From TrEMBL:
A biological-process GO annotation: DNA recombination
Assigned GO CC terms: cytoplasm; Holliday junction helicase complex; Holliday junction resolvase complex
Known partners and oligomeric status: Homotetramer. Forms an RuvA(8)-RuvB(12)-Holliday junction (HJ) complex. HJ DNA is sandwiched between 2 RuvA tetramers; dsDNA enters through RuvA and exits via RuvB. An RuvB hexamer assembles on each DNA strand where it exits the tetramer. Each RuvB hexamer is contacted by two RuvA subunits (via domain III) on 2 adjacent RuvB subunits; this complex drives branch migration. In the full resolvosome a probable DNA-RuvA(4)-RuvB(12)-RuvC(2) complex forms which resolves the HJ.
Name this protein carries in UniProt: Holliday junction branch migration complex subunit RuvA
Domain Helix-hairpin-helix DNA-binding motif class, residue spans: 72-91, 107-126
Major subcellular location class: cytoplasm
Domain notes: Has three domains with a flexible linker between the domains II and III and assumes an 'L' shape. Domain III is highly mobile and contacts RuvB.
Keywords in alphabetical order: Cytoplasm, DNA damage, DNA recombination, DNA repair, DNA-binding
Location in the cell: Cytoplasm
Chain positions covered by the region annotation Domain III: 148-199
A Pfam entry, by short name: HHH_5
Domain of life from the UniProt record: Bacteria
The family this protein is said to belong to: Belongs to the RuvA family.
Length: 199
């Protein structure tokens, strides 16, 4: 298996990044939080997890090892596939997921598109003894440079997570005052937008 990838960021898509590794372009599926930290033309090292299916090999890239380990653990819960596990990490940091499972917090888990009441209860039941306690890993870099066009990044992230374009438009409008007041950290604004949609 491919444990990590180091290369130059050749292209950034809505839900993935292409890294040039020795002349080969590897596409890694990433959360908006991970994509927000990448810059085209810069070198990056991303921990990776490969998901093998009968008809595909998909490489998922992460900002940190903790995110990768949480992703792989989420996949062991029944009913959780790679897309849902990635959506969970787009909405919540690994520590937030650990806290939610430890506290039987169904509401936090159902904020993720695709997880209903029963699904959240099943995830809690199956992972409670294995997910561990919060470790205090920061969910994002506080010194991340402001991303240009944060509206389009947040909008694309929401649509990629299953919301309609109209819902994404409303959520982006709702968090615009927050962006003007606190800066344009895409990961934080995406979480705020998801909280707006979960109401």
């Amino acid at each position: 298996m491919i444990a990590f990838v180091t290369g130059t960021v050749a292209r950034l898509e809505l839900t993935s990044a292409v890294l040039d590794v020795g002349g080969v372009g590897l596409e890694l599926m990433c959360t908006p939080r991970t994509l927000a930290d990448l810059r085209q033309g810069q070198r990056a090292t991303l921990p990776t997890s490969m998901v093998v299916r009968e008809d595909s090999l998909t490489l998922f890239g992460f900002a940190e090892d903790d995110e990768k380990q949480t992703f792989e653990l989420l996949l062991t819960a029944s009913g959780v596939g790679p897309k849902l596990a990635q959506a969970m990490l787009a909405v919540h940091s690994p520590d937030e997921l650990r806290r939610a499972v430890a506290a039987d917090d169904v509401k936090t888990l159902t904020a993720v598109p695709g997880i209903g009441q029963k699904g959240a209860q099943r995830i809690i039941l199956e992972l409670k003894d294995r997910i561990g306690a919060p470790v205090g890993v920061p969910s994002q870099r506080t010194d991340a440079p402001a991303a240009a066009g944060w509206q389009s990044q947040v909008h694309a992230g929401l649509v990629g997570l299953g919301w309609s374009a109209k819902e994404a438009d409303k959520a982006v409008d709702a968090v615009t005052p927050q962006a003007e007041a606190d800066g344009t950290d895409v990961a934080r604004l995406l979480r705020a937008a998801l909280q707006v949609l979960a109401r």
